[in-house]
Amino acid sequence: MALTDTFVKQVKLGNVNKSGDKHADGSGMYLLVKASGKYWRFDYRHLGKKKTLALGVYPEVSLLKARKRRTEARELLADGQDPGEAKKETSTALLAASKNTFESVAREFHQVKAEGWSQGHADKWLSGMVTYLFPALGKKPIASITAPMLLVVLRLVEKRGIFETVHTLKQCAGQVFRYGIQTGRCERNQAADLQGALKPVIPRNFSAIVNPVEAGAFMRAVDGYSGHPCTRVALALSALIFQRPGNVSAMEWAWVDLDAAMIAIPSDSMKRTVHAKLNGSPHYVPLSRQSLALLREIQPLTGNGRFVFPSLRTSNSPMSNMTMNAAMRRMGYTAEEMTSHGFRAMARTLIKQELPGSDSEVIEAQLAHGKSGPLGSAYDRADYMQARREMMQRWADYLDRLRAGADILPLRKMA
Predict the structure, then answer these.
(1) CATH classification of the domain holding 383
(2) Catalytic residue among 46, 107, 140, 271
(3) Does residue 323 have a pLDDT over 90?
């Protein structure tokens, strides 16, 4: 007698047969009731051997679905195939497919490459994938993804106006496809076929004040900043030493030698490749008298802690990279006028244009740009460091003159 849905739902294990009770449904299929649950089974013979095929567990697999699976198994037997072996092959294929999804290949690639990347780049790379590409493409086999499919996802990001992110995602996807080709998971880099399909990125320099009169007004605004003194000193010091905003906001007292008038930014805190971070020298920043005065001013406030400019919320973390930008907005300067990264452009431009005899190589060295040209590693020699010391003091004195408004003609009027 065939089973019914009601019987399957209500049947319980008998007290006698602890190994399980079998309730036949016909054609080799039965419900095996055990203390742990109810299991569908199918007994069959193949090549003279008796075998049993698991059809699923009730209630996840209903009576109707179990009968369908029995029919499929009987059809395989009729074709001379072993349904048990067919199930193993399907499971193997599904397992292989799960390892060949876009997300699994991307994460594998990330794991392979992350050791050679900076932590920031590795985190940013994976974050972009998780945020934008994995939700739509992550579960798809990488070999099944086409260029139009990838384009649809990128266009959704493009509509948000973050064009640089779109092109970065396309580049990252291309890395995943190339790795998929190398490891035999796909045969084509679909990202390469999107060349020219996305809106271009229009390069935009960091906003910076490069007019002497405007620079003087800005420095006076910094002096008059009424916010937290740490923020005011961070702004003033940024103008004097023109290092990357992240290096200023995360500056540690251990880097500062007031007696030697020097900041030594560790190699692993610099914007360098992993190899350069591990093998490079610190980046030295000579301090002018004005810079030393600022650091001595702030030392009684933060000198007992790790960071020169600690977070306003906890001394265990440095000031946020956005704090100086927020302060400049409070001072009335928009993002189109000045940014924390703009101190570098301001210094580079005005030193070259307004301080006669300034050597471009010395300026680039102080900016910690890549060492090139015939001087090469000579940047860190004592005689070249002296040139940097002199330049930094001349720059600080020049900023003082700008602040005072002395003997400075507006460039726009001269034009």
Answers:
(1) 1.10.443.10
(2) 271
(3) yes
